[in-house]
Amino acid sequence: MARVSMTVNGEQVSGEIEGRTLLVDFLRGTLGLTGTHVGCDTSQCGACLVHVEDAPVKACSMFAAEAEGLRVTTIEGVAGADGTLSPVQKAFQDYHGLQCGFCTPGMVMAATSLLEENPKPTEAEVRQYLEGNLCRCTGYHNIVRAVMAASGQDVGTVAAD
């Protein structure tokens, strides 16, 4: 067992881990932050996407020990301190960019990263950026519309899948 410390959603946290503990397991099991979902355990679906030092990372592909001393943001840390939804979260709500909701945390985290890198992406850029996140329900149409809306662009031209 080893001790790991990091900043998660603005708070300093620490916990005892085995060397093989994945970041997603530390977040969910040790810290109780269950918004980060485990979808595939193979880094294929994107449900576990978090931000590490502001970069998108699939938390099932990183050991918790690798996050020692780093800043991690989960879906729980995206909303304002008062619970106000972020622009991306609000757009997902307004444009029904979710159905079952399982992929939603990873999609929101990916979309947030995209808009930080490229505040006005094209529809094609949104679709390309989200390729690493799988959704089994929506067909992506409303997810793309939500990201375009969050960027302040017209969603009326988003093509149906």
TrEMBL record:
InterPro entries: 2Fe-2S-bd, 2Fe-2S-bd_dom_sf, 2Fe-2S_ferredoxin-like_sf, 2Fe-2S_ferredoxin-type, Beta-grasp_dom_sf, Diverse_Oxidoreductases
Limits of the 2Fe-2S ferredoxin-type domain: 2-78
SUPFAM superfamilies: 2Fe-2S ferredoxin-like, CO dehydrogenase ISP C-domain like
Keywords, sorted A to Z: 2Fe-2S, Iron, Iron-sulfur, Metal-binding, Oxidoreductase
CDD domains per UniProt: fer2
Gene Ontology molecular function terms on file: 2 iron, 2 sulfur cluster binding; metal ion binding; oxidoreductase activity
Organism domain of life: Bacteria
UniProt-listed Pfam families: Fer2 (PF00111), Fer2_2 (PF01799)
PANTHER family associated with the record: OXIDOREDUCTASE WITH IRON-SULFUR SUBUNIT
Name this polypeptide is given: (2Fe-2S)-binding protein
